[in-house]
Amino acid sequence: MHPREQTIFALSSGRPPSAISIARVSGPQAATVLNALAGKIPVPRMATRALLRDGNRQPIDDALILWFPGPASATGEDVAEFHVHGGRAVLAALFAALSAFDNVRAAEPGEFTRRAFENGKLDLTEAEGLDDLIHADTDRQRRQALRQLKGLLGDRARDWRAQIIEASALIEAGIDFSDEGDVPTELIAPALAKIKALLVEIQEVLAAQARGERLREGLVVAIAGPPNVGKSTLMNQLARREVAIVSPHAGTTRDIIEVQLDLDGYPVTVIDTAGIRETDDPVEREGVRRARAGVAEADLVLWLVDAQHEKSFDQGTAPVWVVRNKIDLDAIGSIGLRVGTVNPKQGVGVSEQRWGSADFGISASRGDGIQELIAALVKFAQSYFGSGEGGLISRERQRKLLQETVVSLQRSVRVIQQGEELAAEDLRIAARSLGQLLGRVDVEDLLDAIFRDFCIGK
Fold first, then answer.
1. In whole angstroms, what separates CA 158 from the centre of its chain?
2. For every one of its 458 residues, what pLDDT tens digit does the chain have, with 9 covering 90 and above?
3. CB atoms closer than 10 angstroms to residue 321
4. How far is CA 176 from CA 18, 100, 168, 227, 452, in A?
5. Which helix (H) or strand (E) holds 288?
6. Do residues 198 and 409 touch, judged by C-beta distance below 8 A?
7. In 3D, which of 50, 81, 83, 49 has the Cα closest to residue 66?
8. Distance CA 320, CA 192 (A)
9. CB 93 within 8 A of CB 30
10. In this structure, are residues 274 and 288 in contact, taking their beta carbons and an 8 Å threshold?
11. What are the Cα distances from residue 319, in Å, to 233, 239, 301, 353, 376?
12. From start to end of 306-426, where are the E strands?
């Protein structure tokens, strides 16, 4: 039996125990399962109370049931939902009862969403947006994922693909049906105009793609420096909880510790690294190696020093901010905080903007200067992610397919004087790239457009 002919079930809410758990069933057997366990099929989309019983007529739970007949359901198939009490024993009994039915099995990861895609309920960009929405940690990530889920990129891609097909239909009609009286004789000029306008639109979206991908992946900030300068204490201050062990002994941190922060809606991963120094301890030496690797991959380095450690850090390409710790113990403390200004430095383009070096004075143990440092990190994040909402593109797959589309469109413009057939082939490749972006590739679209638009009754 084909997997799509099987009925699947899964827990759709959080891990038990919980007040309420939701189990979903999707597939051709959903009505049979619902009727057998609840003794009835409720009115569609109306929550109904029912006592669930297993195959031996033993009670499972007093629950709410819902019925979504296909295709008007999330997956496009018949879907049943069981809202039960969220105890492990209740769910175990319910899942055992579901598994007892023929051709009913536990769902594989993402299988409900895959069936929704296969049944035309959402395209690939919307499916990716749904995944991003589930994994969003900050409000800005949530808003970007919601835009994807609402189909903003998919809608644009569908419109672009339709226009490419129309342009291709014009060229194809000029090639294949030039003898027909009802086909316009001048077709190349409007086709070229349409292609060039599309190029501008798609290139504008690609120009802003870095914001979307960065917002999805997040900003990585590495706290580095010599041993015993307060890196773990600063990490705990930024996290507002104890995530790293603080000790007066050098070499306490042997591995990279990560904490996820939400800075004004921007996702930031802060990593606490081992103290960078020469050592004969093989375990600490491995920690130092990992620290250097973590710093090399970071987007910003906070190089922490104190009065006894003034060595600067000049490795890697990321901006480095010098953070002078323990100002309450040295001369700076008697004068007040010395907080440097941070000046933006223009990079290759607006989306590649970076901030230059900065100098901060803090007391990680007392908290002095921490708020100023956090405020500077927020400004850095604003510069890093760019202004406004994230771009329409949030994944490498989307970016590559749009880049392939642009290359094909540009090539079609160049070769059209050498032959309309070459241009038409490049347009077909461009349309196929957008079809792959959406997950919809239909070779019949071009013929449909020709026959519909030009009324060629053949």
1. 21
2. 666 689 999 998 888 889 999 999 999 999 999 999 999 999 999 999 999 999 999 999 999 999 999 999 999 999 999 999 999 999 999 999 999 999 999 988 888 888 888 888 888 888 878 777 877 777 777 877 787 777 778 888 889 999 998 888 888 776 655 555 444 546 788 888 899 999 998 988 887 665 666 676 778 888 888 877 788 888 888 877 655 444 443 444 445 677 888 888 788 888 887 655 555 555 556 666 666 666 777 888 888 887 665 555 555 677 888 888 877 665 444 333 333 333 333 222 222 333 455 678 888 888 888 888 988 988 888 777 765 555 677 777 888 889 999 999 999 988 887 877 888 899 999 998 998 888 765 534 433 443 344 333 22
3. 22
4. 65, 59, 12, 75, 15
5. helix 282-297
6. yes
7. 81
8. 49
9. no
10. yes
11. 22, 22, 6, 11, 13
12. 320-324, 344-345, 354-355, 358-361
Question: Could you tell me the two tokens for 445?
Answer: 């679209």
Provide the whole-model pTM.
0.61
| Torsion, CA 412, CA 416, CA 422, CA 423, rounded to 10 | 40
Task: Return the closest-CA partner of residue 391 out of 265, 202, 260.
Answer: 202
Each as own residue / partner, the long-range contacts of residues 236-240 (CB below 8 Å, 24 or more positions apart, any chain) are: 237/364, 237/367, 237/370, 238/270, 238/370, 238/374, 239/270
DSSP annotation of 4 reads G
Residue type, 394: S
Q: For 343-395, where are the alpha helices, taking DSSP H only?
A: 370-385
**Nearest-angstrom CA–CA distance, 435 and 443:** 10
| Residues 134, 112: Cα–Cα separation, whole Å | 14
Q: Which two tokens stand for residue 374?
A: 């956090």
What residues contact residue 441 under an 8 Å CB cut-off, 6+ apart? 432, 435
The identity of residue 235, as a single letter, is M
Apex CA 93: angle with CA 92 and CA 96, to 5°? 85
- Phi, psi torsion values for 62, nearest 5 degrees: -90, 110
Q: Torsions phi, psi of 351, nearest 5?
A: -75, -15
Q: What is the DSSP string of 92-114?
A: HHHHHHHHTSTTEEEPPTTHHHH
CA distance 108 to 457: 48
CA 397 → CA 114, 117, 238, 402, 438, distances in Å?
Answer: 17, 17, 34, 9, 11
Structure tokens at 185: 């004789």
